[in-house]
Please model this.
Amino acid sequence: MDESCIFCLIASGQDKEAEVIKQSKDLVCFRDICPAAPHHYLVIPRKHIQSCFSLNRRHVNLVERMAQMGKAVLQEQGITDMTDIMLGFHQPPFISVSHLHLHVLAPASQITDFDYKFIPNTPSFVEEHSLRRRIQNFDPDPGANQSHLKLLFQKILPS
Model:
């Protein structure tokens, strides 16, 4: 746990203002404080993981469980059209909190105000299923990924 991370504080129950919607032993879901859609939730791991760039193939199951929790929350909140939802992650440097968090939005057709932040598969936002595919073959050995990371950052932050 990172004591300076607001999401770590929410995950550990130390932030009493956050409205936790659902939790499990390793995940927590709560409402986004600046909703961009009628239903906008964040699903976070209790363990501090900095961002989607910190993930590798060992995390595929974690990303899947985050998506499952997000979909379950939407269904519990009365969302029946699961084709009009968006699940995804902001990518650095386009993140406001350096703790991995899945955005769960519905209806996606009603995303407002910050819609430019949620354009799928852009440098700022990657959909959950695309991130899973990306990390599926990503080796957890940091040395094995140096050239891949360099290419990834060049695509996102061209010089």
User: Anything to note?
Assistant: Residues 29 and 43 are 4 Å apart (CA to CA). The chain has a mean pLDDT of 88. The beta strands are 20-23, 27-31, 39-45, 86-90, 102-106, 125-127. The two ends are 34 Å apart (CA to CA).
